[in-house]
Amino acid sequence: MQLMKKFFLSIDQGTTSTRTVLYDAKFKYIDQEQIEIKQFYPKPGYVEHDADEIWNKTYKTFNKLLKKHDLKPSQIVSIGITNQRETILGWDSKTGKPLGKAIVWQDRRTSDFCDSLKKRGLESEINEKTGLLLDPYFSASKLKWLKNKSKEQFLKKTTLFGTIDSFLLWKLTEGRVYATDITNAARTSLLNLTTLAWDQDLIRIFGLQGIKLPEIKNNADNFGTTKLFGGEIKISGMAGDQQAALFGQACFETGQVKSTYGTGCFLILNTGAQILRSKNKLLTTVGYKLDNETTFALEGSIFVAGSLIQWLRDKMQFISSAPESEKLAKLGNSDSEVSIIPSFTGLGAPYWKPDLKAAIHGLSLETSREDILLASFEAIAFQTRDLLEALKNDGAEIKSIKIDGGMANNNFFGQILSDVLSINIFKPSNIESTSLGAAYLAGIGSAHVKLSELADIWKADKIFKSKKSYETKYIRYLERLNSLT
Question: Which of 45, 212, 387, 399 is the 20 to 30 A CA-CA neighbour of 102?
């Protein structure tokens, strides 16, 4: 009798799409189903998602993949979940219905509230406890906004709050499990990095007394089971998207770095068991937690990376598809003095300027769309160098960087990145490290694989080595950026 093949499924719920990815028992990619989700911009600085849409499309991609490959629930070893971080919502535990739209991580509506906390001198306490800065990016100020909008609903016994992972888990388990993982919890500004628990002082500072928050679990853990697909399937792994990518890139050793280029860019350095406090406005956060042992990290967050190319495609109509950007950027004038400051939703690390507007400098009558596309790739690389300089000033020694995300498909960008950073850039054979990391965590959580076995799976597809200097262009970019800040 032939044994049934076993598989893992990763739910990867991102900022612009939801997808489910299928892997075999050795974590080899098999197939995926993906659907875009709608972005809502009701006011300047507001960014929202429809959580019902996210759930329905998560269910649809998952179910479609099972049916497409004629898979029985008994063939799925476990499910891993990874998600856009910081995005927050409330929902009614009786009906399962969201209390309005989810507030997305890019949203800036709470800038004034964050400024008021800064004026009260509370940023240093928040930073000491959480490792984060006081910025609208993180979830706590968004929760305060939700409370102000509906105080009566906020304190109802049936009202639950959480990041997208908690909502998806609650829906998958039909309300049996209300939990989050440590990496998502660490991005709320409500988790104490020392105790690794919700902090009542932080809850008070943000004016969230009486709030219900999910149980905090390890990244590889028992997250319950789903019975929605014709049988029971275990859920054994969960992590915020950037930590899942760190795991998928096999950055298990202190000093290893990954940089993900999706909607934004997120660079994470593994700092091991040490909580390394940045003096250069980087974020101290949790890398992952396994068997109650925590690995910490330093992170630099760039709010605009791939979304700059998306803007050039959708709003400016310079290109008809993202892949076309590589072909045209190669035709750009390398001596052009065009610089782009892509602060469409403010600047993230290491500047943290939430209200800064985007700008294009150095235009002339000779400037072409090819020049602007080239400058766009350079701008993303320059922002990455800002992060690298901050890490170096914090004492980190970085010899190479592993990249992933959609922009890692662009070899021209990979070479620019290596030139700008003067460092070797490693592109893995599987650039979708986020969903792979979730599958790895599901594998560990289901006792299917050990951490020591995963490092050997990672393989480099391409290595970019620095060929020329970008020093003059980088200095010009800094001068123009400083003139705005």
Answer: 387
pTM for this predicted structure = 0.86
- According to DSSP, residue 81 is labeled E
Structure tokens at 257: 């770095």
Nearest to 288 by CA among 82, 428, 69: 82
Structure tokens that stand for 249 in this block: 């890139």
β-partners of residue 32 are 21
DSSP for 135-204, please give it.
Answer: -TTSHHHHHHHHHHH-HHHHT-TTEEEEEHHHHHHHHHTTTS--EEEHHHHTTTT-EETTTTEE-HHHHH
CA gap 441, 218 in Å, rounded: 10
Ramachandran angles phi, psi of 252, nearest 5°? -95, -10
User: d(Cα 280, Cα 130) in Å, to the nearest integer?
Assistant: 16
**Beta partners for 235?**
79
Using CA atoms, how far apart are residues 96 and 21, in angstroms rounded to an integer? 25
pLDDT in tens, the chain (485 residues): 345 789 999 999 998 899 999 999 999 999 999 999 999 999 988 999 999 999 999 999 999 999 999 999 999 999 999 999 999 999 999 999 998 899 999 899 999 999 999 999 999 999 999 999 998 989 999 999 998 887 777 778 888 999 999 999 999 999 999 999 999 999 999 999 999 999 999 999 999 998 889 999 999 999 999 999 999 999 999 999 999 999 999 999 888 899 999 888 989 999 999 898 888 889 999 999 999 999 999 999 898 999 999 999 999 999 988 889 999 999 999 999 999 999 998 888 898 887 889 999 999 999 999 999 999 999 999 999 999 999 999 888 887 799 988 899 899 999 999 999 999 999 998 878 899 999 999 999 999 999 989 988 888 889 999 999 999 999 999 999 988 87
Give the chain's largest Cα–Cα span. Answer: 73
CB 427 within 8 A of CB 460: yes
161: nearest Cα among 103, 107, 113: 103
Strand partners, 404: 260
CA–CA distance, 172 with 9 (Å, rounded to integer):
13
As a whole number of angstroms, the distance between CA 242 and CA 269 comes to 11
> What residue type is assigned to position 390 of the chain?
A
**The pair of three-digit structure tokens given for residue 130, joined into one six-digit string:** 């959480």
Domains of the chain with CATH codes: 7-240 (3.30.420.40)
Task: Give the integer Cα–Cα distance in Å for 420 and 13.
Answer: 31
378: closest CA among 481, 268, 462, 484?
481
Give yes or no for a contact between 294 and 218, defined as CB atoms under 8 angstroms apart. Answer: no
284 touches 313 (CB < 8 A): no
- Rounded Cα distance, 218 and 235, in Å: 12
